[in-house]
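== Folding the chain ==

***
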Amino acid sequence: MTQELRRSLGVFDAVVIGLGSMVGAGIFVALGPAAGAAGSGLLLGLALAGAVAYCNAMASARLAARYPASGGTYVYGRERLGPFWGYLAGWGFVVGKTASCAAMALAVGSYVWPEQAHAVAVAAVVALTAVNYGGVQKSALLTRVIVAGVLAVLVAVIVSCLGSGAVEFGRLEPAGDASAGGVLQAAGLLFFAFAGYARIATLGEEVRDPARTIPRAVPLALGIALVVYAGVAVSVLSVLGARELGDSVAPLADAARAAGAGWLVPVVRVGAAVAALGSLLALILGVSRTTLAMARDGHLPRTLAAVHPRFQVPHHAELAVGLVVAVVAATADVRGAIGFSSFGVLVYYAIANASAWTLGSGRVLAATGLAGCLALAFALPLSSVLAGTAVLAAGAVMYAVRRG
């Protein structure tokens, strides 16, 4: 008999979980590389990424309301397109987001103790896996605290930069370095920052009244994140300029220093570490739920579908995900992990849009999202595209062997 998870999350907690996985990855990880790719076309890349994310958000919300079960696009693809496409979405999500978990853990280590970044990353994974094991409501409460702190830091950066004498709004105008290819690649990198709303859909089985809660929570979380991202991008770009922003390894800290707010630099570094922890917490939560759904269908070992009788969480899946992420975090390179994750996430959402297209209504939005996802995926660095394609192909072969 399949064990059901407890429905304990309302709109506010669902929005907070989505924000918790977006704000850390977006601002503190992707902004610099995106500026390096697009130059002064960074804001165009942000707008494009936001547009594609909106299409995906609407597709995810409609599908989650129709299929309020753990698993997200794994479930949607299976129900709307067939078992293989659901499996491919789930495989891409689990593998890609495992890499993303490792990237977030390494970001924590880099800010907290750079000389021992891998050790701190592993410790962070162990600690947050333990928090998730204690129940989703505890995870939501901790994420609420993290999101509040990170948003306060980001607002302080925006106010400090825009209120300083170092602002030059002419730097916001797209220039010759803003090529179409660069803007497209920047959008692909920045899309990594918007992927957090998927956590809301993957928690569909733990949301109260999912038919109403999920369609409200997904666009709300995305909208808040987009406003924050735009504010930070405008303020940092107007102080540093595109070239310096693209070269910076800690752009928000450098922007605060350039704006004459040296006191804010250590606060920003702490905020970056906390934001990465928030992202890691929500990512582990989402990956374990997709693992649960795939295990229920026999695509992964059945033991991973076990639900703890007391805490009502997929405890075997959470422990397995935590172990794999800890191993990757101990050995991986953060930049490679981010590129690999971005490709997997975009393929995942391409399948979500294709699934939403079959619902009948909203087909223009779904087709736009599908085309946007594929365009951004193949605009990523070639190494990311090749690695992602190879892993998806390996997953497809595993599926064929199991079915045969």
About this structure: The radius of gyration is 20 Å.
